[in-house]
Amino acid sequence: MSLPPVFQRFDTANLRLRVISSAIMAPAVLLAVYWGGAVFGAVMTGAVTVGLYEWMRLVAPKARAQTMGAACAMLVALMAGGFLFSASFGAMLAVIFTLVLFLLAVRDHDERAGWIALGIPYMGGSGLAFLALRDTPDYGAGLVFYLLVTVWSTDIGAFVFGRVVGGAKLAPAISPKKTWSGLFGGMALAVILGYLAAYWLGARHPVVALALSPVLACVAQLGDLFESYFKRRSGVKESGDLIPGHGGVLDRIDGLVFAGVFAFLFQAAIGEQISWW
Question: CA 220 to CA 222: how far, in whole Å?
């Protein structure tokens, strides 16, 4: 018995792998957010460190192993600084380590020294942002849960609507499979589930999520396109193969990287003032 035409647009074998992987990873991540502390710090450090390694393989596949090892060690150090002291201290380390990594790459005569060095603020900035959000007194876990639900909803909505509805391409030169229908579908699902998450998690003014969620959805899609641009340049489909059905870790956190930094800046500049949570 053949599937209806609309479902034939899905790669069912790959979709099965994606669902299984997500069913394993999502509860583990949510549990780490709930526990917070060293557990959450370790999970975040591991995610961004693997993400940095995949980033360097993406932008500079010929980089020396010593340079890649030094970059990962520096990222772990700045995450530890952010966890033990403050996000500001971690950010200071990020500036220093970015310069050091750039000089190391220049010493190695690597023409992609700038892109290599960018990996520190790219991964480290998002890692510190998540640590700072989770460390927010009283409601840090709720903020991170809301952020995860919103970004994951964007990914799911974009995937489903993009396959089912199709239509005009969003950025064909960067990511040929992304469509405008996928973007709007992802935004719609992010608004619905983002609002419900904010309401259920106890936000004082969950209505703010109706405005914030679609913005986070767009920012997450920008993060996805940013990574897609470099994958396109490098001629690879995925940043890695660590996660069955999903590719690499960077493929899974690219949207969260941008959205996490935006959420941190929003909360610091506006969120606390309006006391929406």
Answer: 5
Domain residue ranges in the chain: 1-35+139-277, 37-135
- With cut-offs at 50, 70 and 90, classify the pLDDT of residue 22: confident
Q: Quick one: tokens of 146? A: 């809301």
* pLDDT of 6 over the 70 cut: no
For residues 260 and 192, the answer to whether their CB atoms sit within 8 Å is no
Buried b (16+ CB within 10 A) or exposed e, 107-118: eeebeebebbbb
Q: Which two tokens stand for residue 33?
A: 């957010």
User: pLDDT by residue (tens digit) across 63-97?
Assistant: 999 999 999 999 999 999 999 999 999 999 999 99
Instruction: For residue 246, give the amino acid letter.
Output: H
Query: Which pTM was predicted?
Result: 0.93
Question: Is 181:226 a contact under the CB 8 Å cutoff?
Answer: no
Question: Please, which residues have CB within 8 angstroms of residue 215's CB and are 6 or more apart in sequence?
Answer: 262
Going by C-alpha positions, the residue among 19, 45, 20 that lies closest to residue 32 is 45
